[in-house]
Amino acid sequence: MTGPRIPNLWAVPELKEKILFTFMCLVIYRLGAHIATPGVNVQVMADFMRNQGAQTLFGVYDMFVGGGFSRATVLALGIMPYISASIMFQLAGAVFPYVEKLQKEEEGRKKITQWTRYMTVGLALGQAYGFSIFTESLAGAVTSPGWGFRLITILTLTTGAVFVMWLGEQITERGIGNGMSLLIFFSIIEGMWPGLFRTLDFVNQGVISFPALVVLGAVMIGVIAGVVALTVAARRIPIQIPRKVMGRGRIREGAKTYIPIRLNSAGVMPIIFAQSVIIVPGTIATFSNQPALQAMSDAFQPGTGTYYVTYALLIIFFTYFYTSIIFNPVDLAENLKKQGGFVPGVKPGAATADYIDDVLSRVTLPGSVFLTAVALLPFFIFDAFNVPFFFGGTAILIIVGVALDTMQQVQQHLRVRHYDEFMKQGRLKFRGRRR
């Protein structure tokens, strides 16, 4: 699959407007991510994140908001309250039948979207209050602590979170699509630039040799290529659609198609869940002086065998867990049965569901192992080359996934434009006349 050429992008007025609108929204988002929250000493916050917060929950959060948390900006919460609310309703569909029913209906999905917005506001209020308490706990971080500062912070950060949610929806509706994902994508990209410049400084100072830099670049390209292969790889289950009488003697010919079972159906979520669990000891130890908690935190620091083994097992577990939630073989088998389709050699109904579930289980195992390798490999790479920034597996998967989705969106716009022009020009002729 080849990507769209740049001249073709500007040749389509509608697509050009969508790209410019998306770019404008992203610029506004990144500008807002550099406006400091009133009453916060940004330098104190940045020093804490540099010294203690990088390997805690705050470090993961800061990556998704493009450094807005460490800079204590008005958009410090970023898109994360909305993402958290979306995940909560997605998981609720596997627990509550009523939510699952709504997810299958058009009107129900609109209702869930509205509930997600309300939940986003509630989560933003809670997280903004937690942010105000957290900053007050840092010595010298708040100039005038108290309820006045807390109320201003809650109002500012909640408004910022709602604005980011609205901005993402505008990109989805009026831009090139994938609004929420693009906001995270550019947040991660922006956070990488300072580290890249520091790496070049290390090369100039002789800390990192030029051959080592070349090897590092080659390894990173290989890792990205592997992630692309992991993202698009799929096991195709063949499906046969039988011939069907349509009425008045018309017969619809049978067709052969397939169901793609992706090697990594869960996407980046297993790594996010695993990170959220494994950094809990370090986050708790940051606010506690208990020797036992500090010892547990030290045992789960990157670079230890306990950290790597636990991290790997958590990723494999959450891969199966999340895949089982988002992929329902029973519903898929029932839909096939209703449409008259079947898997060759497999009985429709329960047998088809069991067959799909078996294929899914076998495909998920190598996918989870590959996902674990993608998550752990950067630790070993950057420890070996001693580079001043970390390009983690989560960031790689998000960047690659969003880039591929955006490319498909652009290609779809170009394809639709091509078909529209084809129909307008009327190149089909019948008995010498254009149709």
Written account of the structure:
There is one protein chain. With about 425 residues, the chain is mainly α. The protein has a domain of about 200 residues: Preprotein translocase SecY subunit (Orthogonal Bundle), CATH 1.10.3370.10. It has 17 helices and 6 strands. The strands form 3 sheets. It has a two-stranded antiparallel ribbon with strand order 1-4. Helix 10 runs antiparallel to helix 16. The chain is globular and about 75 Å long. It starts with 5 loop residues before the first helix and ends with a strand. The C terminus is likely disordered.
Large-scale geometry: globular
CATH architectural group of the domain at 1-204: Orthogonal Bundle
Please give the radius of gyration in angstroms: 25 Å
**Mean of residue pLDDT values:** 80
Helix percent reads 55-70%
Task: Please tag this protein with its features.
435 residues; mainly alpha; Preprotein translocase SecY subunit; two-stranded antiparallel ribbon; 17 helices; 6% strand; disordered C terminus
